Amino acid sequence: MPNKAYMTAHTIHEKPYNSLIYVLALYMLIWPIVATLAHHSPPLDVIEGYVWGINPQWGYYKHPPLPAWITSAAINIFGKHVYILMLLGPVSILVSLVAVGWLAKELLSVKAAVVAIFITTTSLYFNFLIPEFNHNVVQIPLWASALALFWACINYGRYRHFVLLGIVLGLCLLAKYSAVILYAFILLTLITNKRARVHVTTGKFLVCALMLLTIISPNIYWLIQSDFQSLNYLGARLGQKLDWLGRLQSGIEFILAQLLANAVVLFLGIKLWRAHKNGLVKNYNWDENSKLLLASFIVPIALSIMVPLISGHPLRDMWAMMMFTTLGLGIVSLAPKYFERFYSKKWLIIWVVFQAFALLAYVGKTQLTPYVKGRISRATFPGPELAKVVEEDWNATTQGLPLLSLIVTGKQIGRAHV
What we know:
Strand content: under 5%
């Protein structure tokens, strides 16, 4: 009788898409469970989003509303369970991988497409930072979907793709205003690339723009009515202007942080370069699709670096999380045949070890912070205990009247409410 483990491995080898079960298990089970066990209280941004979502609005003083809506909807549907909150980030990554996978399927062989998906998950932005569901994380699936739809628009030219692109671009702005960088990339591509304009008629462009404006217009109206609170907050968050040396330093530090966050992809890129140098890869596949994929993260990063250089305000590393959704796919598209050899048991084991290390590093970060820094970390904050004390004091003072709202300094209101 055939060995069951052998049959499973054989099935995965014969049907490459079956290997994605490892990715599904990582994001739907392992990351949410580990993050839930590692947190005594939910991450700060998750709590903040929940508090905002209690009273749905078209904008909040710091950010657009979409992440708060999602957090609030998840709690209202599934209840106040930390696991549900910890599932939001991994689900966002899975959605982005679906978009990347669809685009990979259109461009590459099945094995190369699967390898591209696995490589994408090695970015720090696709593992270590995902439990904290916030505006940066929400943008990741939206950027990935927008780039996949943009590719479909310029290659197939179907109206439904333009409609969907407009909707996704609108949602992207409702996630975070840095979506304007994605808008700039798309417009620059259409302006500078004649081939990209072949299927983009005026009517299709206007349909896309109409859907975009329909989605974002309530938030724009809210911004005007609130005296641009969110933008004023951004200005305050950016801090004081830097001198020219500080601007250059900020740009360099930003680039180095992105290289570190995507160190595995950088390593694979170096391996590809060495393979090309040694004759294992004769020529790079430098076609229009590869150029577009590489430009889809190079151009946004370049535009981001211009912020400190021109405005004098420093960048924050995490603001680039969503810009690397097509990085793995772009690298693989340069030499698909070469990267098919990474579809093997050896590299799968290496991937598992890497993800295990990321999980252990996350647990270490959440649990060791109090010992290293000598203070309570966000993950170990006694939120449930605080909530119980507040509830007991309230009931003792009011003889059990319902506690409708709580106003205190700092973020304790959110921690107590959750």
